[in-house]
Specification:
single chain; 129 residues; mainly beta; Thrombin, subunit H; 1 helix; globular
């Protein structure tokens, strides 16, 4: 029996400004301090990888595994939201002493429209490589 993990989707290394917010379904379970989240409960993060299966973020705020979140990716204009979608945090790894955490997320329930948008964004990333 092999212990090799095989990914179903190609992952793209990226550097995109993003934000996460605890989903309403987990708002009573996971509470952030007033200093941890900005306006509207959004935590500023950086998206560092993306695939059709999910995204990876670097965050200075710890969020536990299995937390349901809403993710936003921003365009060149920091007020332009290019993607907003549901995600579930699957992995949390402390990356350094700041502290910072790598949050590995899978996508939640995506509408066909969101799936097409994500596929289009990833295709654009693939053409830039």
């Amino acid at each position: 029996m092999s212990s090799t993990v095989v990914r179903k989707a190609m992952r793209h290394d990226v550097s995109i400004r993003a934000a996460l917010r605890i989903a309403p379904t987990h708002g009573d379970v996971v509470r952030l301090s007033s200093g941890a989240a900005g306006q509207g409960g959004w935590v500023e993060v950086d998206c560092v990888d993306a695939s059709m299966g999910g995204m990876g973020f670097i965050s200075t705020v710890f969020l536990p595994r299995m937390t349901q979140v809403t993710a936003r990716l921003f365009g060149a204009d920091p007020t332009q939201v290019v993607l907003e979608c549901p995600c579930v945090i699957r992995r949390v790894i402390m990356t350094d002493r700041r502290p910072a955490y790598h949050l590995g997320c899978s996508f939640g329930d995506l509408s066909p429209e969101l799936q097409r948008l994500i596929e289009s964004l990833l295709n654009n990333l693939g053409s830039e490589e």
